[in-house]
Design brief:
The chain is an alpha/beta fold. Helix content is 55%, strand content 10%. The strands form 3 sheets. The protein has a 5-stranded parallel β-sheet, with helices on both faces. Helix 8 packs antiparallel against helix 9 and helix 14 packs across helix 15.
Length: 418
């Protein structure tokens, strides 16, 4: 079997014009750690660098804490070996600064020191270290502890990524259900998400998933508003005092819905603060920055709905003191809202696909029940809902939908799955 797989790999690579890697080499390849060593003694740096390089790790060595902090901010290491007694800045201070930086706080720090008193070890752990190796150190001990903490760090990273993906998909399902109840929220939430993601990427904000979820869910409290009231109050035209009062209450409703969900505390706080006009971008507070992102995106979205070109809307906000933070508007200088052109199609239920937008209500065959409302963007779940009603109670066909202009059904299906 092994020989058959090797021949298959060779024939596939030959057709692609590439040289195949031997199966054994691929199977035995081990991920390498990106390790930083900080020590003011050149002999220690050289010894540790040789030891870790022989293990297959990538190693960066620094004689000063300040240099290590600058390098870590540019290229995050997987692990840091840190001496305590160094000039300019000792190891405790270096570790405290690492842990105070949201971007660097999760990097495990192993202290290396000739100081063996209990109080020094306690200070090392209090400053954020995960382990302590006393000098003169044994190479086998260093090797074993490095491997242990690298494995723990990789396991934490895998768990973190899995939790983020799971949470993201669960919240998207929640958003789908909310938008099913109020389809007019779908298009606005999609516009806000696109804008916020672009700005977060340009600003290189850590944990961009939080800002994405906040944008997707920032209007979830509006499910308590009648559709007309939301439309009037959101755009800011023809809204009655009662409609404006209901709209101003939606951040509190959204906060109540989300604040009890683990790991969404920051997202819930962004949503709660989104209408506050005294937030300060310079405070480097994730919740306040997220709220400012949401507020800015909504201000711009409202203006584009009134027919104002996007960059002209940005210029308007720049001219209103305190309306938006300049860095946010600068991050959107190259952004333009999607201008996809749609065409209306009349399709049978069997041809409906995720991504299509309902141009009319989907109702049962006898007209007694509204299955899905006009304006809803179909998802996998909603398509299945329509098909289930079609099987059991019947649905009026054909269904009128909007599809991106020039896209055939096969291509639409491919795009929906992308």
């Amino acid at each position: 079997m092994k020989e058959e797989l090797q021949r298959l790999a060779e024939s596939t690579a030959a057709r692609a014009g590439a040289s195949p890697a031997p199966i054994n080499a691929a199977a035995n390849a081990q991920p390498k750690g990106n390790i930083m060593v900080v020590d003011d003694q050149p002999a220690n740096l050289k010894l540790l660098e040789e030891l870790l390089t022989q293990q297959g790790h990538s190693v960066r060595s620094f004689p000063r804490g300040r240099l290590a902090l600058d390098s870590a901010a540019r290229n995050l290491p997987d692990l840091i070996l840190l001496d305590i007694n160094m000039p300019e800045m000792n190891g405790f201070e270096v570790c405290k600064r690492l842990k105070a930086d949201e971007k660097l706080a999760t990097i495990p720090v192993l202290f290396l020191s000739a100081l063996s008193e209990t109080r020094n070890k306690v200070n090392a752990f209090r400053s954020g270290g995960v382990d302590y190796i006393t000098k003169p150190f044994q190479l086998e001990e260093v090797r074993a502890r490095v491997e242990t903490h690298l494995q723990l760090q990789r396991a934490r990273q895998v768990e973190r990524e899995l939790l983020e993906r799971t949470l993201n998909r669960a919240v998207k399902a929640l958003a789908d259900l909310a938008h099913l109840m109020s389809p007019t929220l779908t298009e606005r939430s999609a516009a806000l998400r696109s804008m916020v993601l672009h700005a977060a990427a340009e600003l290189r904000l850590p944990d961009p998933w939080q800002y994405e979820l906040a944008a997707m869910l920032c209007l979830i409290g509006c499910i308590t508003l009648p559709s007309d009231a939301f439309a009037h109050a959101y755009v800011g035209e023809n809204a009655s005092p009662e409609e404006l009062q209901m709209y101003r209450a939606h951040p509190a409703v959204g906060f109540q819905l989300l604040s009890q969900i683990p790991r969404l505390e920051n997202v819930a706080e962004m949503i709660r603060l989104q209408q506050i006009d005294t937030l300060d971008w310079t405070q480097d507070n994730a919740a306040e920055r997220g709220a400012l992102l949401l507020r800015t995106a909504q201000e711009l979205d409202r203006r584009t709905l009134r027919g104002i070109p996007f960059q002209a809307a940005c210029d308007q906000l720049r001219g209103i003191p305190g309306k938006s933070a300049a860095p946010l508007l600068d991050a959107l200088k190259d952004y333009s809202p999607s201008r996809v052109q749609f065409e209306v199609k009349h399709l049978m239920v069997s041809n409906l696909l995720p991504g299509m937008i309902l141009e009319d209500d989907v109702v049962t065959e006898d007209g007694s029940l509204n299955v899905i409302s006009k304006g809803t963007t179909l998802t996998v779940t909603l398509v299945e809902r329509v098909r289930n009603f079609s099987r059991t109670r019947g649905v009026r066909e054909p269904v009128q939908v909007r599809v991106p202009q020039g896209v055939c059904l096969d291509e639409s299906e491919r795009l929906a799955r992308a």
